Amino acid sequence: MMRITLRLIASLVIVAASVSFIFSGLQARQEQAHLEQELSRRAAVLAESLQESVEPLLDGGKLDGLHRLVERFADRERLAGVAIYRGDRQPMAMSPRLPVEFQIAPETARQALDGGGAVAGFLTLQGQRWHLQAVPVRAPAGPPGALVLFHNADYIEARGAAVWRHNFLRLLLHVLLISLTTLLIVRWYLTRPMAKTVEWLRRLRIGEPADQGALPHEGLFGPLAREVTHITKTLTVARAAAEEEARLRHTGASRWTPERLKEHLRTTLEGRPLLVIANREPYMHVRQGRQVRWIMPASGLVTAMEPILRACGGTWIAHGAGDADRETADGSGKLRVPPDEPMYTLRRVWLEKQEEDGYYYGFANEGLWPLCHIAHTRPLFRAEDWRHYRQVNMTFAQAAVEEMRGMERPYLLIQDYHFALLPRLIREKRPDARVALFWHIPWPNPEAFGICPWARELLHGMLGADLLGFHTQYHCNNFLDTVDQTLESRIDWEQFAVNRAGHTTWVKPFPISIPVEEPPGGEGPAADAAVAKEAVLKELGLQTRWLGVGVDRIDYTKGIAERFRAIERFLEHYPEFQGQFVFVELGAPSRTLIPRYHELGAELDAEAERINRRFQTRAWKPIVFLQRHHSHEAIQPYYRAADVCVVTSLHDGMNLVAKEYVAARADARGVLVLSRFAGASRELRDALLVNPYDVEQVAAALHAALTMTPEEQTERMTRMRELLRERNIYRWAADLVAELARLRPVRERLTNQG
Ligand code: F6P
């Protein structure tokens, strides 16, 4: 590095010196020319005025007068003397201290005598530079002569030398400053950050804990640091995965990992790419001021499905809903994602505004959503919305068929209630496709579903799938009951299958999950939670002993208001927690164009405010409600810091927040309070299960959570973590695809027999 620095300094100095040299020469020359001109001008004026005084003295040979005059003009400033020469070049009168060489008229005087006009010039005599100004003089009756003014011109040379000296000193100063600045810049902006990066990489290589904060994140090394951090993350995950694989091999356990899923799908799909259709895209490009950035929308579906596509590649077809989505995709709406580490293809489908309003906001979220969730919000069914829902399902069918082109027996995983009609539409166009539809929300009982004016069409559409998945067996049963009461079909209650017009659809539970990443080096110490808590509280400017967290899309099914009221009751019943417990609600705004959702945000704000006003002191308030989008990374510290995570959905298909909290607790601490109306409660039996409508019960559960012994916390958390490790998202995907592959031959057999 020192050698590079010296080279850099040397180059800068050479450039600066060359520039200085050229400009000094020019400046000196200009200065000298200016002084010469000035001297010539002054000498000419003086010579002219002396000419007038001298000529009368010549008349009659008044030599005394001439001598007095030349003596008077000797040694005046730079005027060294004056001489008056006769036509024979001998002096008539001459200032005494002029050199003897001027006893004979110089060439300039002769030219003035011969030419009859003024002549000026420089000459050098014994190392001294002279300026001579000669004018002819003549008495009316006398012989011609010449008056010569002798100026000492050495100072002009001296001035040029002074310019060079001055510029040289300036150059020296420049060189010094350039060298110092270069040294400092190189040290601060190159050497130090590079040394830090190298040290950081070294620690990483040898497996020592490397602090992310130690990396320079700004300036020249910012982009490099970001890339390195990224590579490191990938490396850490790969290393953890490899360790996990090795550990599993060693213990003989058969846990699902991304690698195993990849291998499994390669064999099962026989090289075909996986095709997924979901309304919500995993990466949305949005405009922020002049910049375009991408976000991962708050969505359980994205949380679950994204790791599968990352592991196995393939294509995710989704509605392009971001305001900068079009400019970040190619002509056919495609781009490779994740944007910072491309692994699979996202194909965006473009919808008109009215289509989005009718299909997504209208039929899907004002109709089917409240229909399937028992949360006491009345569904709205509008014929116009239904028309758009059908149209958009056809648009997606078209996109899917395009993606299947050239593929034999393609596999398609359709997601959620936005696409109930899609399985049938696909089957009509591609009878050879293997189609699964996974319903991420609950399925209600037949009476509840029966109020939908288009219940038959929806069921008919869904039964175009080979496989229908729900989170729980209970939802499967509800679905089969609904089909039984609505459509002509044959239901096989032993196999959980429906046969309608020769096509069989199997209906099975697949409890969805998340990836559970093993922290490098295994389960972490409890100290991690304390560190995370300190950081979170510092960021929010809070002080508290106990911390609770809730993470939700702001949706009326999530029971957020009920949760706030339970906190109020908890503080009433257990006043010793006042000033000691803070609940942070991370609420992501969702579907805000729907009036009910729009109102909900304001209602929840008001409810939190009301409760806070009741209890708050100058330095403390019980509820911190943060209504904004929070990235997955931003949420993790809250999970790790929270003594209790509260999930109080009034009705929920699964609720992956509950699972994310457990997955984040590598320290096996913390308590989960979980609604028994969320699908997750069927698996996470070690959570404190509550009825969210029962405010007293939730308040008591909060108390139980905050007073639970560390041993009990660890026992419960360890069991839940073990279960999640077993039933992670990779297993979910493997089960679903394996089932789809297994069913089709059976279906063909059944159809052939029938
Ligand atoms: O839970 C149902 C669901 O559609 C999920 O599949 C998804 O994660 C969530 O709602 C998000 O909803 P949206 O896509 O409307 O923001």
Commentary on this structure:
This protein has 754 residues and is of the alpha/beta class. The chain has four domains: 134 residues, PAS domain (Beta-Lactamase); 41 residues; 247 residues, Rossmann fold; 201 residues, Glycogen Phosphorylase B (Rossmann fold). Helix 8 packs across helix 9. The longest helix is centred in the first third of the chain and has 57 residues. It is elongated, with a radius of gyration of 46 Å. The two termini are 81 Å apart.
Write a brief caption for the model.
This protein is α/β, with parallel strands linked by helices and 754 residues long. The chain is 50% helix and 17% strand. Helix 6 (258-268) packs across helix 7, helix 8 (353-372) crosses helix 9 (383-404) and helix 15 (560-573) runs parallel beside helix 16 (595-615).
CATH architectural arrangement of the largest domain: 3-Layer(aba) Sandwich
Cα gyration radius (Å)? 46 Å
Mean pLDDT: 91
Could you say which overall geometry the principal axes of the C-alpha atoms support? elongated
Characterize the biggest β-sheet.
10 strands, mixed
Task: Summarize the SSE layout with pairings.
Layout: H1 2-58, H2 63-72, E1 79-86, E2 91-94, H3 107-115, E3 119-125, E4 128-138, E5 144-152, H4 154-205, H5 222-251, H6 258-268, E6 275-277, E7 284-288, E8 291-295, H7 300-312, E9 315-319, E10 334-337, E11 344-349, H8 353-372, H9 383-404, E12 411-415, H10 422-429, E13 434-438, H11 446-449, H12 455-462, E14 467-470, H13 473-486, E15 490-492, E16 497-500, E17 503-509, H14 527-540, E18 546-553, H15 560-573, E19 581-588, H16 595-615, E20 623-627, H17 632-641, E21 644-647, H18 656-664, E22 671-675, E23 688-690, H19 695-706, H20 710-726, H21 729-753
Residues 280, 299-301, 416, 440-441, 553, 590-591, 653 line the site of 6-O-phosphono-beta-D-fructofuranose.
